[in-house]
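Q: I'm writing up a methods section and want to include an example of the input and output format. Could you take the sequence below and give the corresponding predicted structure tokens, formatted cleanly so I can copy it straight into the document?
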Amino acid sequence: MVNRLEQEIGNYQQRRDAMLGGLEAYRGWLDRYADMDAEQTLRLYDLADTLKQDRLVLAFVAEFSRGKSELINALFFADLKQRLLPSDAGRTTMCPTEIYHDAASKPYVRLLPIETRLRDESIATLKRLPIEWSTISLDPSNAMQMGAALRSLAEVKRVPVAEARAMGLCEQNDAELARTSAVDGKVEVPAWRYAQINFPHPLLKGGLTILDTPGLNALGSEPELTLNAIPNAHGVLFLLATDAGVTRSDLDIWENTVYRRVHHHIVVLNKIDMLWDELKTEAEINATIQRQMAQTAEQLRIPLHQVFAVSAQKALVGKIREDQALLDRSGIAALEGLLADKIIPSRQEMLHQSVNREVLSMLEASRDGVKSRLESIKSDAEQLSGFTGKNREVVTKLRDKLVIEKRSYDAVALNFKITRTLVQQQGRALLAELSADVLNGMLEKSRAHLDESWTTVGLTRGMNHLFGRINAQFAKVDAAAANILALLDSAYLRFQEQHGFPQLNPPRLDMDRHRQRLTNLAQSTEIFCRDPLNLMLEKRFMVSKFYQSLVAEARTVFEMARMEADAWLRRTLDPLVTRIRDHKTQLELRVDNIRKVHDNLDNLQTKVAELKQQFGDLGKQYQEINIILESFARQGGGAAPASSAPALRIVQAVA
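A: Here is the clean output for your methods example:
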């Protein structure tokens, strides 16, 4: 049974592959018809690599024993006819778990030892250090081996209380700690800090990545999850138990991890089968479920349509046994429908827009350059055809006119070289404001505020100082970008007025999304520092961990801003440079053509035939580039690219 969710993930992969095909087609077009510089080649390869590595991330967040693993099994892996993730009473997943497919490696479970919490490296850093992980090979054809390997996710170990405290996994005044450590002075902690599962499932091959998070304690002890992994997921499913409703710990996770932190969050009331009472009618049972959904929506302050009631366990059984009645009663179809209709298309649109920002200006510049050459050759062919029977003086006048036009253009182009050099200098200065050295200097100063006091007060002071300095740098970048645009607008206006260039509207650099991310980090800092436990206790370990995670996120924001500014400089300057170069080539070709006619009037018909041949070749180039542009427009659901019809009419008229 192929459901809508599976179909939409398949469509997501097809659209991504179509964009990759479009990039490859454009690169081939440039290889055949244009002088592609090394930087342009590198940009296209980088874009293709970004698309290949893109993943659709869905995060599952809840307190322990809410059925996250079973819901993941039901939604994505029922076709295996068994549970991929272990699911049983009590805690089945003790560490955050990431499930994906890496075609470059054989299937595996990678486990990061809990002792790495004693060090300063983030999980993101440790992901790049394979030596730090324990790896277990997976055999997808061997159910017993798979089950044994995945049960490692639930492993725990006993460590001395002092070591558990050093890892930030227990508090000094914890009554439960005192009871469990009374015998041997040790306490139980998760054996692993993080797990990665590389599994060759069709949905995972299609780009899906699943993040399973194990309860309040794990979320609180790994700020990296709450600051980065969960907010950056493309959809977050927050699970509750239908029979328990919203507990205090559920509400803590919701307020501190999900609410206002993520764009697409869905609340799932799981285990509705516990309300299936044989002494009640179906209508009475449904009324109870609807009442629970309404109360949940009210408590969590979200619309009712974002709350779903399901039985993950019955949905899994229904899919495995192909029991449609049980599957319908489980309520899983409505949840699958929302993921298919909202979350996945939203990610697809984001991906398309990010690629289009980079490649569309390049495509349009290439197309418009061919269009301009088509119009010029059409004009030249018409003029030369009209010279039949005329004397050399007429041809001489046209030649001289073109030579004068070329000299005038060369003068404007030479002047632009000065502007281009100035723009490049200002561009380097702009990027310098976002350099790693600048950020490191700011981080040192913010750290100085914390070295005085590793408390929530010191954390607030240090992070407010850092975020303020970063926003000040963004303001400098805004001013520099405005100056660069003014220079380019002035230069382009000269080409437009003197040589008939079409209107060009260079994009503005928009730093707002990076500012918003800083605002979100500031809010996260405030939430952490308002927590009563953090106010009452110094908690140097947790303050330090939270600071490290904040700094890692701030560094990511800063680096993303720099990459966006760098890409913006290219998008702003490259189309103009391409137009200027193409127009120069076009003028040189026209002058050369008319000179040959002037030197040999008897060869006039041959030259007209050559122009028509050139026109035919350019028409082929134009049609190819326009097809590539239209394919990108279709992927985004947009209309055909502007200005295609006039050029096609030119091709038809002369051909």
